[in-house]
Amino acid sequence: MGIYYIDGKRFYQSLSAGIRRLLTRQDYLNKINVFPVPDGDTGTNMGFTMSAVESSFNIEDNVSISQAAEGISELTINNARGNSGAILAQFFTGFSEGVKDKYKLTPLEFSHALQIAKQYSYDALMKPKEGTILTVISDWINAIHKVSSNTTDFKKILTHGLNEALISLSETPKKLDVLSKAGVVDAGAQGFVDILEGINNFIHSGIVEERTTEAIVETPSVIESISFNEKYRFCTECLISGNDLDRSKLKSKLTEWGDSIVVAGSNSRMKIHIHTDQPKKVIHMCQTFGTVSDEKADDMIRQQHDAHGIHQEIAVLVDSGCDLPEDILRKYNIHMIPVRLNFGPEHFVDKMTITSGEFWEKLETNPHHPQTSQPTPGDFLRQYQLLSSHYKQAVSIHIPANVSGTYQSALLASEKLDSMPISVIDSRSGSIGLGLIAIRIAEAIIAGKTMNEIHTITEEAIKNTTLYVGLKTLDFVVRGGRLPASVKKIADLLRINPILSFTSKGIKPVGKTFGRKNILGKFKKYVEKTINWNQPLRIGISHANFEEKAFEFRDDFVQKVGKENVFVSEVGPGLGAHAGPGAMIIAIQILRDSLND
Question: C-alpha distances in angstroms, 237 versus 80, 404, 434?
Fold first, then answer.
């Protein structure tokens, strides 16, 4: 029985089948990803882009093809990730334009709409490259165009189109040397063909695949030896909303900051993708065009290490409420997902689109007190999906649930992932305290401990880590609403300096010093009095724009516990917004666990 028209419901059902096929293939696509850079995330990005359609689009029986296409276009633009994801989003935007005001489509009308989608797909890129997803999209659409005037049956034209797409996919290595050398087809092109195969299977059988992950086909070993030689480090993306957005001008401006540029969307909403070394400057430039949201900046060097480097089978993930310097994160292979913050209408990604110096300056001069927002479950899910392609298990440890929703976001995301077991843990600490705990977990993984042993070591590390916060002033904790102004007045009157810590009821005072002179020196003496020095210790110091004092503390502690057991970092926005400049944090960790057994 033939199919002679498609309306909104049929379009959505068929695409949903294609998406499910794509989702079963994410890990494989990640494994064969070598272009434009071998960072091993094409499958994750395409899956994230398209899964929003299935999870968020509500289809009704009488929905038109125009309505369905418009809704799918909006969802893919909003959720587009990566080069291929942005191209897919632009493809659906073009298709939506091609079916505007139509209730249903004949094969010939479908072909005409695809021609517009093809043009939109090419227009999204500054430098379209053949041998990629673009080539397969083009060859598929050309094949459909040739037969759509001779048949009225969608089954026949889509089967013919799929056959041509498979041929086109097999020839991608002939058009890109990097694919030929690696012995693989283009990952984005393969993902598009996977969608077509899911659609074709559905229209012939009426059965939608279950969302189970396929066994990974062994990939050529040559991929493992591919080196990362990309000129730029960060895969940077954002969404721009506004009126009459100028795509041509925006693309021209982006060329000043990097390459692999994709601009997808309409003149009111555009998704930007660029490889750059200056994510902050790119985001700032985009803000001159309209309202910017959904910013991200992935470190492609770290991703390439995950995909092709030598590492353990268990990953460690923290949020950026964990204050560890970049060199320590790299040394212990600790992954970090950033929190977001805003000063009024200005939005930033922690440690990516705002520098520490800029943060402290804005904290003192901006009339808006900063607000932080935890990563969303979607942010965590994308990170988990990416890690699951390269690790067998993960430990995801975060700032306490009683001070942030970050832990809950991580937990919700972990429950949606079937491809890898994830242990989501409340650290009951933050800043450099969370950092010391994460280091201990990483050391246990490096030592080859089992997951049960790692859980035991983690609980011991949490129990044996105490964090103290010393404030130079109470002004910022009052501005942030964490302390009533009346309490500050009393503290100032009595010259009391509260010392804070993480407790079961949140961040609360646990001690105090007196006098306004040498506040931080008194804070250090208070902490030292709590320490039993006759045991193995590790000490973390995190400063709020007061590096000189932090290193003075470090030198003193090094004499007591050794250089290898003292870590220094800078306080991030999570605590810095409330602690204020000049604050100091000291974490004491007793090394009393079974790591060396």
Answer: 9, 25, 28
Instruction: Report whether 484 contacts 478 (CB < 8 A).
Output: yes
Q: What is the pTM of this model?
A: 0.82
Is the separation of the CB atoms in 181 and 5 below 8 Å?
no
- CA-to-CA separations, 466 to 322, 431, 462, 502, in angstroms, rounded: 14, 11, 8, 8
- Contact (CB, 8 A) for 409 and 426: no
What does the domain layout of the chain look like in residue ranges? 6-213, 465-590
Tell me the residue type at 73. S
Q: Cis before residue 484, ω within 30 degrees of 0?
A: no
Do residues 379 and 367 lie in contact, with contact meaning Cβ atoms separated by under 8 Å? no
Give domain 465-590's CATH number out of 3.30.1180.10, 3.40.50.1820, 3.40.50.300, 3.40.50.2300.
Answer: 3.30.1180.10
Number of C-alpha atoms within 13 angstroms, CB side, residue 436?
A: 32
Classify strands 291-299 and 314-319 as parallel, antiparallel or unpaired: unpaired
Q: Which pLDDT tens digit goes with each residue over 553-588?
A: 999 999 999 999 999 999 988 788 888 899 999 999
Residue 361 three-state SS: helix
- Contact predicate 368/361, CB 8 Å: no
- The CA–CA distances, whole Å, from 200 to 11, 14, 377 equal 12, 8, 32
Written as one string, the DSSP assignment of 476-507 is: HHHHTTSS-HHHHHHHHHHTEEEEEEEETTEE
- Other CB atoms within 10 A of residue 310 CB: 6
* Lookup: tokens for 483: 């302390």
The per-residue pLDDT for range 99-112, each reduced to its tens digit, is: 999 999 999 999 99
299: helix, strand or coil = strand
Choose among 556, 494, 486: nearest CA to 521: 556
Matching CATH number, 6-213, of 3.30.70.420, 1.25.40.340, 3.10.180.10, 3.40.50.300: 1.25.40.340
Beta strand 258-265 with 346-349 is: unpaired
Whole-angstrom Cα distance, residue 372 to residue 577?
9
